[in-house]
Amino acid sequence: MKKTRKQEKITKCQICSSPIIEVLDLGKYPPCDFLTKKQFSQEIKYPIVIHFCPVCSLLQLGELVSQEALFTPKGGYHHIAELSSSFKEHLRILARETVKRFKLKPDDLVVEIGSNDGALLEAFRDEGVKVLGVDPTDVIDIAAKKNLTTISEFFTEETGKRIVKEYGYAKVIAALNTFAHVSNLSSVVKGIRHLLSPDGVFISENHHSLDLINGLQYDFVYHEHLREYSLKSLIHLFKMHDMEVFDVEHLSTHSGSIRVFAGKKGAHPVSKHVSDLLKKEKEFGLWEKSVYENFAKKVREHQKTFSKMLNNLVADGKTIAGLTFPARAVTLLNSNNIGPETLCYITELSKIKIGKFSPGTHISVVDQSILFGKDAPDYGLLLSWHIAKEIIPRFREKGFRGKIIVPLPTPRIA
Q1: What pLDDT, in 10s, does the model give residues 353-369?
Q2: 290-413: which CATH architecture?
Q3: How far from chain centre, in Å, is Cα 236?
Q4: What contacts 126, CB < 8 A, 6 or more positions away?
């Protein structure tokens, strides 16, 4: 873990450079690095302040920690895509449908930005096309064991140019839940445009700001997640680089995402889905300041209700454990001041996290098996609440008999 990190305070929109408006200050806490006790004193906390752009409607952080500190091996990056069985199936379906829709052939190249453990690349390879990953973290070691080629660096304009020289143009470029993480956004889009074949397609999946606001999903805002896209903001971004969005799908993944298809301007007919979703965003008020002011008010109300629920359970002598630890849990726990006095521990499957402590709140992370024995807690706080339908039955099947608290959008006992 690094003792110092670079941080940049911004006053202009990350896409269109317009002045941005502060929406909600969630406090100061560290990025999602799991710690040993010796590292507690080295932990650095940074502000999480949400801002809104009234011009392109991008929701974004006002202070950015450098991506080099967050997503390199030294940054302690811990997400592994294939650990979620439902998400792995999601990737298989995406690969199969993409190959069919765009009539990919064996010599066509698919490049993934932020390829992680190679789960999507593997799915595309199984469909019979060439694949290449780009990812700066040490999670690519898992991809290497699958014989998947990965370029170990951040994707930039120069990366795109170099790939063209070494591998040729890409028919498909994908960035799933990573396009909101890159800090050098302009360079990335320039690299994508250069790397795409004339009829190529860039496919991104991002959490939709409409779902975040409508579902009170403030825990999805954290240091690694620099921005929340609306469709309007993405259209604005690609237009700046002579590209256009030609189709969009709404997905249930990550509690509400949009899959956006973009290509070089005029390369693909524009689907009615684009205008339909723009209309939905406008009718919801997603482009208006008042929606975000109301969102901030509801977050404060939720925090009071949620804290009261947990404090009452502890006062009654009940034991509560955290169930799983996605990156978004950093915001939920820290912004609600939930520490070891509330959660006796947090359970996990990932060996990267077990034996360490949660960022900021310093709750011990233990093996999930403790939930299924005689010392199981009375309650489990489901930190991966966004996949409750998948994960709760799994806990029950394995033998957890405690009650499960689902924190958002309204705290409830499942």
Answers
A1: 999 999 999 999 999 99
A2: 3-Layer(aba) Sandwich (3.40)
A3: 21
A4: 92, 95
